[in-house]
Amino acid sequence: MDDRMKYTLRVDHLHANKRVDKFIAESLPDFSRSKIQNLIMGGSVTTKNGQVHDCAQKVKEDDVYDIIIPEVTPSHLLPNDIPLDILYEDDDLIVINKQAGLVTHPGAGNNSNTLVNALLAHCGKSLSTIGAEHLRPGIVHRLDKNTSGVIIVAKNDIAHASLALQIQNRELCRQYTAITFGVPKPLSGTIKYNIGRSDKDRTKMAVIAVGGKSAVTHYEVLEILAKGLAAIVKCNLDTGRTHQIRVHFSHSGYPIIGDQEYGNVRHKKTKAFSQEVQDYLQSFKRQALHSTFIKFTHPVTKKSLEFTAPLPDDMVQLIKLMKQ
After folding, report:
1. What is the pTM of this model?
2. Which of 142, 183, 215, 232 could bond to 223 as cystine, CB 3.0-4.6 Å?
3. Annotated catalytic sites, by residue?
4. Which domains are assigned to the chain?
């Protein structure tokens, strides 16, 4: 079908009488509502009666809608030859153990030396086009620049849509390992705070009392370090909000060690550590947060896949020093 992607959606009873833009946005979760509205107004959505141009049109049960997604290629993005730690790769997806310090995708004022640029060098044009207009070809989910670990990249739109839906339905398991200042109480539990842009600093996220987006982090303390001054914590996400783990633990009083935005080495407890740990923390300029494990269903083969990335050397060394 030339260079376009087509989706066919049938309205079920749960979506009947909803606006057509809302129905499509809920059925294709990786597309924003505004993107869907632009597609409708551009004539890319059709039914048996022809093109749909009214975003507010109500859908009826068993109506069938065809959505055409034109290919968008960020031709101005250049490949960068950056080494990648590839855990798995096939024709549909690639699983990377991302190093700390590598930005996931280009953004305002930064079009090079990101994971996307590295993938363009490795895969060529074999990346999904979903998100391409936002400089995110292939990116199904993201890791912060200074968070390391497992990340999945889609090579085509079918794989991308499937993986995005698994994330939305909480069928894709993501597990992180963090090192926190202090020991979270209780030793296991769930943190539920809505997250949104901070009113004080719009470049940062914060827990929001009114509004924001629902965010749920399950955690378990795996090991207590330095006589209770720190802990190794396992985190599982129900949601994937920007900076979610970092914001949740900072707000709860247990910021992640090394986090330069939400609880860095100037934390009040730093001086309680041994001198050797204090010296090491002075050079530890990234959050001690690692995407350790991921489990999902392959979009094409339907096999269950899981991948683990061992803790990086800097976190291993930090733990070693805190055990002395």
Report:
1. 0.77
2. 232
3. 144
4. 4-70 (3.10.290.10), 86-169 (3.30.2350.10), 175-292+315-323 (3.30.2350.10)
